[in-house]
TrEMBL record, chain A:
SUPFAM superfamilies: Aromatic compound dioxygenase. Residues 29-161 form the Intradiol ring-cleavage dioxygenases domain. Keywords: Dioxygenase, Oxidoreductase. This is Protocatechuate 3,4-dioxygenase subunit alpha. InterPro entries: Intradiol_dOase_C, Intradiol_dOase_core, Intradiol_RC_Dioxygenase, Protocat_dOase_a. The gene is pcaG. Belongs to the intradiol ring-cleavage dioxygenase family. Gene3D superfamilies: Aromatic compound dioxygenase. PANTHER family: DIOXYGENASE, PUTATIVE (AFU_ORTHOLOGUE AFUA_2G02910)-RELATED (PTHR33711), PROTOCATECHUATE 3,4-DIOXYGENASE ALPHA CHAIN (PTHR33711:SF9).
From TrEMBL, chain B:
Residues 1-33, 48-68 are annotated as: Disordered. The keyword Oxidoreductase applies. The keyword Oxidoreductase applies. It holds the Pfam family Dioxygenase_C. It comes from the Bacteria. Keywords: Dioxygenase, Oxidoreductase. PROSITE patterns: INTRADIOL_DIOXYGENAS. Residues 56-65 have a biased composition (Basic and acidic residues). This is Protocatechuate 3,4-dioxygenase subunit beta.
Length: 183, 234
């Protein structure tokens, strides 16, 4: 059997291959219910990471995926133009942002979440994390959140900073290091 | 929950995030062990991206008014999973330096010449058999600030999605017999037995007479870790 190809860093010039003009728009601009999810990416010294990339993948607002491997069956999104996928290169201040819809909850008690990949110069492989949303009652029963000590759980829960805005900073290292996941 | 596919974690394959010889890992590698996340619906699905390909995205030598400087090459191969199955209809993104080893990027400031006819970015979608192919020029090696007299071996960056979030991979393709491998901490960050998986092979059969040399490189994403035989007895 063929053996898996090793990962390598995206390097400092990742925008040449990975920056999409509309990458941050998981739904077309103007879609009702659009929320902005944003934050900063920091290194272990607390300095911004200006050569990083944040990618998100999520269920649609009904908790479904337009994907044949979902054992419940693929379901085309009810919202026109919903992609489920977003990507945003960090800016010189380390900031990233995506514009999307709040995902639905999933079977097995999973609260609404985004799966997140972070790439950067100096990261030889992506790191994976999740973004949950403050105030969602389902957070109380989510199996991943429940498995974490409270002090670390908060690194995965985006704060509601406005009627349609959430914010979560990602810390690659340090006292406030984000919980990263082995998938 | 209904049963579903999962993806096996490869052993002795990926570089450790803490690789001190590559200095930029120092402040950017997490120090806490990762938390195991069982693969559920969000992890076994993923973006199935296609239809965003421009007419010259597969040919980096035809994105401007003139031909770029350098050795024209075809780079091709297959995208597979580790069960040996081809990965069809999946987006492959590439980016690279020009023939002089300079990236068309504002932060690349080493004084090798830029090439007005070369941007260095491309994308293709694999065929129904998992095949991909693009035309470009052979990138040059370049110096970097990691340590005294540090040079990166010539490489092309590759980004792959597969069909699941779990399969996502970004890597670099190298060229055969590069003498800089022995000195490059990024190449050498990978476990020794897995390094050659990143190295393409010269492919005489795919060369184009009077036009281009060719290199072949197959890319392998995570599979289920189960052969069909094992599935039958599961």
């Amino acid at each position: 059997m063929p053996e898996v190809t090793p990962s390598q860093t995206v390097g400092p010039f990742l925008t040449l291959g990975l920056e999409w003009p509309k990458g941050a728009d998981v739904v077309p601009p103007g879609t009702p219910g659009t929320i902005t999810v944003s934050g900063y990416l920091y290194d272990g010294a607390g300095d911004p990471v200006p050569d990083g990339l944040v990618e998100t993948w999520q269920a649609d607002p009904d908790g479904r995926f337009d994907h044949p491997d979902d054992p419940r069956g693929a379901v085309a999104p009810t919202v026109p133009g919903f992609l489920g996928f977003g990507r945003c290169c960090t800016d010189p201040e380390g900031r990233w942002e995506i514009r999307t819809l709040l995902p639905g909850a999933l079977p097995g008690g999973e609260a609404p979440h985004l799966d997140v990949s972070v790439f950067a110069r100096g990261l030889l492989d992506r790191v994976v994390t999740r973004i949950y949303f403050a105030g969602r009652p389902e957070n109380a029963t989510d199996p991943l959140l429940a498995s974490l000590p409270a002090v670390r759980r908060d690194t995965l829960v985006a704060e509601k900073t406005g009627p349609e805005e959430y914010r979560l900073d990602i810390h690659l290292q340090g006292d406030r290091e984000t919980v990263f996941l082995q998938v | 929950m209904l049963a579903h596919v999962t993806y096996a974690l490869p052993r002795d394959t990926h570089p450790p995030l803490d690789s001190p010889e590559y200095r930029s890992t120092g402040l950017r590698h997490p120090t806490q062990p990762p938390v195991l996340l069982p693969q559920r619906l969000t992890e076994i699905t993923g973006p199935l991206l296609h239809g965003q390909i421009g007419p010259n995205d597969h040919d980096l030598t035809r994105q401007h008014g003139g031909e770029p400087q350098g050795q024209r090459i075809v780079v091709h191969g297959r995208v597979l999973d580790s069960d040996g199955r081809p990965v069809p209809d999946t987006l492959v993104e590439v980016w690279q330096a020009n023939a002089a080893g300079r990236y068309a990027h504002a932060r690349d400031t080493w004084p090798a010449p830029l090439d007005p006819n070369f941007s260095g970015g491309g994308r293709v979608v694999t065929s129904s058999l998992g095949e991909y192919s693009f035309t470009t020029i052979k990138p040059g090696a370049y110096p970097w600030g990691n340590h005294h007299n540090a040079w990166r071996p010539a490489h092309i960056h590759f980004s792959l999605f597969g069909r699941a979030f779990t399969q996502r991979l970004v890597t670099q393709m190298y060229f055969p017999d590069d003498p800089l491998f022995a000195y490059d901490p990024i190449y050498r960050s990978v476990p020794e037995g897995a390094r050659t998986r990143m190295v393409s092979a010269f492919d005489m059969d795919a060369t184009q007479p009077d036009r281009a040399l060719a290199f072949r490189w197959d890319i392998v994403l995570r599979g289920s870790g189960q052969t069909p035989f094992e599935d039958a007895h599961a």
